[in-house]
């Protein structure tokens, strides 16, 4: 399909708006095509959160994606979503710190973190208020 547009008597500012609109539409279309061909990510069976981890060539998990996946899983849990839990990941080893309201929340956060793909170990330093 070829789309040909002819602009007659369009002033310069309007022409710039039209060009930007077509460029934006092209970028959105290209991004949509790229994303539609991506394989759907796995969902963690325990937490229901998307599995965002990526394995690198050396076998270690991608720390940023692991931290993101842990954060997403923790925020998906109704008991934990309102808490400010800090997450640090180094080569798949995740450290949690901050404050929780109950021991059950502390344990739930550790369990969800351990169940997240790419996590090798959990250092749970969450404190109960």
UniProtKB/TrEMBL annotation:
Residues 62-129 form the BON domain. PROSITE patterns: BON. Pfam families: BON. This is Hyperosmotically inducible protein.
């Amino acid at each position: 399909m070829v789309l040909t547009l002819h602009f007659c008597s369009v002033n310069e500012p309007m022409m710039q708006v039209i060009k930007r609109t077509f460029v934006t539409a092209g970028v959105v279309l290209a991004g949509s095509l790229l994303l539609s061909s991506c394989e759907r990510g796995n969902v963690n069976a325990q937490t229901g959160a998307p599995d965002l981890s990526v394995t690198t060539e050396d076998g270690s998990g991608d720390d940023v994606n692991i931290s993101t996946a842990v954060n997403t899983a923790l925020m998906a849990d109704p008991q934990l979503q309102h808490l400010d839990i800090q997450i640090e990941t180094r080569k798949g080893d995740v450290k949690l710190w901050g404050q929780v309201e109950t021991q059950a929340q502390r344990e739930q956060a550790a369990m969800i973190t351990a169940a997240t793909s790419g996590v090798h170990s959990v250092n749970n330093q969450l404190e109960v208020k």
